[in-house]
Structures are given as C-alpha cells and as structure tokens.
Amino acid sequence: MELYKGQPVALRLREEIKEKVSAFKQKGIIPKLAVLRVGTNPEDIAYEQRVLKNCVICDILAEAKECPADITTEAFLSLLDGYNRDESVHGILIFRPLPQSIDQEAVSLAISANKDSDCMNPQNLNKLFLGNVKGVLPCTPEAVRELLLHYVGSLVGKNIVIVNRSLVLGKPLAMLLLEENATVTICHSKTKELSDITKKADIVVTGVGRAAFFGKEYFGPHSIVIDVGINEKEGGITGDVDLDAVSGLIKGISPVPGGVGAVTSMLLLRNVLFGICEA
Q1: Is residue 8 part of a domain?
Q2: Domain ends where: 89, 118, 147?
Q3: Is residue 126 exposed (0-12), middle (13-18) or buried (19+ Cβ within 10 Å)?
Q4: How far apart are CA 119 and CA 278, in angstroms?
Q5: Residue 191 belongs to a domain with what CATH number?
Q6: Tens-place pLDDT, residues 175-195
Q7: N or C terminus of the chain with fewer C-beta within 10 Å?
Q8: CB 144 within 8 A of CB 110
Q9: What is the CATH number of the domain that holds 103?
C-alpha cells in the first residue's frame, strides 16, 4: 500500500509561490493575507498556525485577528469591510463554520471576490460550476485534485466516488474532477449500500467526519483513497478511514495527518497571489 503524502506536492507549490512572490516584490507589491478566526476551536488554531508559518516561509505578510465567540454579524461584517477596503491586503481567510450568532450567507456575500482566498463568495463558486477552473479555487477540493494528479496522473475515465455533498468539499470537488474527464459519483449519509458503491470505484474520497468509519469492507485491492476527514483523538487527529484495517488491502491512501492538509494551506497562499492578479 502506497502512502500519498502531501509534502512533495506542498514543496512544489511552495517553490512556485516563492518565485511569484519574488516577482511581485520586484514590482513593489508585497502580498498580504488577513486571517479572521472566531473563537478558539483547536483545529482552527492549528490550521492558522500552519498558515502563518507557511506565510513566513513564502515571504508573504500575514495578519491574524481572533474574534470573540459571541461577536455579532454586524460587528464581524464591519471588521471584514475594513479588510476589503485595505489595499495592502490581497487575501482574506475566514474560518468556517461560523458560529450561529453570525449570518454566514451575509459574510459570504460581503467578502471581496478578489480577496476571497478560500472561495467563499458565491461569485467564485459560480465560476467553478460554469467550468472555469482558473484563478481562485476552493482549497480543500483543489488539494485533492493536486494529490491525485501527482500520484495517479491522468484521471480520464476514472470512476471516482466522493462521500460528501457539501459546498466546502463534495460539490466543488465533483466539478474539478469532471473537468479532468473523470466519472464522478457523489454519496452521502442517506446513500444506500454505500460499501457496494465505494468498493467498485477506482478512487474514493472520504469526508464524513467520523473517525475510522471506513473499514476494509468499503474497499478492494484496486482502491485508491483520499482521506479528507479530520477527527480528534487522544494525542492528535485521525481520518475517516481505519488505516490499520485497510493496510495491505488497498492500493494507496493519503494519510491523516500528512496528506491533504499539507497541500491545502499552500493552495490558500496561491489564491492570495491570484487575488493580486485580479485586483
């Protein structure tokens, strides 16, 4: 069984980003990312720290703002408007899901489409659903595609099952994979005989958010699995797939941690640079 680690892909992206940052700086432009986080969710904090670290490595300025968990929609929108108007800021990252006290739809509509580094604004999602895969793309789905292209190569004709139907992962990922001429099936919590469907697929992308949910009954020796699940466990995090159960059975899998997440944070920074181009 091969481990599809994110590091080689992330390192390639990092070098590409550093070259572009250098080119922008020669023109007097210093790329900058603003990070807006509500509350103290440990997963959000861990991801924020990784993003800030990568900003330093790639020579991108970063400003992180922690908002109180009980912040109102009006207060959050006011803060967001300040970053939208700030010409020194080229990208904005807002951690989701937002608490119930904040109107997420209003925030999605308010964030500048040019500075929307995680493809939150419907304008950017609409471009993707219309087949435009250039420019800003949702980071996690694009990370899955980058991993597959790196380790699998051509996806033409591949039978790919996505076990997630959200706007954050499943739906945009389906659009990206269709652009690669793959055959895509989206499954979810109400899908009947799920294991029969996944077992027949060439590639399975898991995103159910349940630790070790997928055992060996969901896969075969030909299966390639991209695990997008992030679940807390004692001493760290784990994915949706029971790695011990499938080890030696399947063809390959992206580990958690060390798989999709490493690529996602680099794609976020690439989107910041796209924001400069679109400004």
Answers
A1: no
A2: 118
A3: exposed
A4: 14
A5: 3.40.50.720
A6: 999 999 999 999 998 999 999
A7: C
A8: no
A9: 3.40.50.10860
Q: What is the pTM of this model?
A: 0.92
Same-domain check for residues 181 and 86: no
Strand 236-238 and strand 231-233: the pairing is antiparallel
Show Cβ contacts of residue 265 under 8 Å, excluding neighbours closer than 6 positions: 10, 47, 50, 51, 54, 139
What are the beta bridge partners of residue 2?
Answer: 252
Say yes or no: 222 and 191 in one domain. Answer: yes
d(CA 244, CA 74): 47
pLDDT digits (tens, 9 = 90+) for 202-247: 999 999 999 999 999 999 999 999 999 988 887 788 999 999 999 9
Q: What's the distance, Cα to Cα, between the start and end of the chain in Å?
A: 45
Residue 94, phi then psi, degrees to nearest 5: -115, 125
Amino acid at 169: L
199 and 107 fall within a common domain: no
Q: Tell me, yes or no, whether 109 and 207 share the same domain.
A: no
**Residue 84, domain extent:** 27-118
Residue listed under structure tokens 């807390």: 232
- Is there a contact between 263 and 146 (Cβ–Cβ < 8 Å)? yes
**31, amino acid identity:** P
Residues 152 and 256 in one domain: yes
Contact by Cβ (8 Å): 209, 240 = yes
With beta carbons less than 8 A apart as the criterion, state whether 98 and 241 touch.
no
Do residues 147 and 256 share a domain?
A: yes
The structural domain count of the chain equals: 2
Identity of the amino acid at 238: T
Q: Judge contact between 228 and 207, C-beta under 8 A.
A: yes
Counting Cα atoms < 13 Å in the Cβ hemisphere of 228 gives 27
Shared domain check, 213 and 173: yes
Q: H or E element: which one contains 205?
A: strand 203-206
Distance CA 142, CA 265 (A): 11
